[in-house]
From TrEMBL:
Source organism: Oceanobacillus polygoni
Lineage: Bacteria, Bacillati, Bacillota, Bacilli, Bacillales
InterPro entries documented for this protein: TRAP_TAXI (IPR011852)
Keyword Disulfide bond: no
Protein name listed in UniProt: TRAP transporter TAXI family solute receptor
Pfam families membership: NMT1_3
Signal sequence coordinates: 1-24
Keywords from the named record: Receptor, Signal
PROSITE patterns: PROKAR_LIPOPROTEIN
Amino acid sequence: MRKMKLFLSTVLLMGMALFLAACSEDEFLQMLTGGTSGTYYPLGGEMATNISEATGIQTDAVSSNASADNVIALSEGDAELAFVQTDVMSNAVDGINSFEGNPVDNVLAIGALYPETIQIVTTGNSGITSVEDLAGKSVSVGAPGSGTYVNAEQILEIHGMTMDDIRPQNLDFGESTGGIQDGNIDAAFITAGTPTGAVEGLSATVDVSIVPIDQEKIDEMVEQYPYYAADTIPAGTYGLDEEVNTVAVLAMLAVVDSVSEDTAYEITKAIYENADSMAHDKAQFIQLETALDGIGIDVHPGAQKYYEEQGVSVE
């Protein structure tokens, strides 16, 4: 009899342990964003609040070195969600560029968010009016591990140049604009939604100029790298007198495959049904109709379930 009671007690304790483990699943989510002076961080903060309120799952947005580092952190289990550029995520899954020989196989897509414009920032008196003018100049190409570095490399490549043709500096957005203001660097590649806070801050102290990309080169980039799209920075942004033609990639939200289907479903629903409650300028681009644009990796089954319920086809 005692053995039977002991057995039943053990079974009961194991059942309670399993129940508590199930209840604790996905009770806390960490969302990696980017530098505090970019777009990811403030937008991610608002998005994390929406997810927390809509799902009851505490979600915290934290600053980071952005795309490439974010993917590595996800793959190593250091976070559950992250902002990532679509091109960087595709590279990670394919095991190319920054992920050469180290493909990532445990990260999935929630959805696309907004266009991230590649901005080559300089000053009006720098004498830099084309990509070719960057030759020999001190140029920030993004923080180590950032997608901005790959963007800079590919834009230089399309113009017949390499990193050896410039004096590359690995700076984040705030350091880049600070360096331009102080005269320590000549220009900076900044991949972020416009207007970008760090560049707006710079425009308050100096005459900002954005280096344009010729249409012929834009067409070459889109053909060679389909995750790029033509983009235009409107006149008036940063005090610009005229609009500037350039290219953009898309920001997306990625998730580890260990996040449950129910949680991924609720995250996706919270993002796309509450975007209009966010104050950030880029929130207007977070739409169900474009949620799968530029997504070159598998979508999480929970997100897929939500899209299919909304009539959005996931190929």
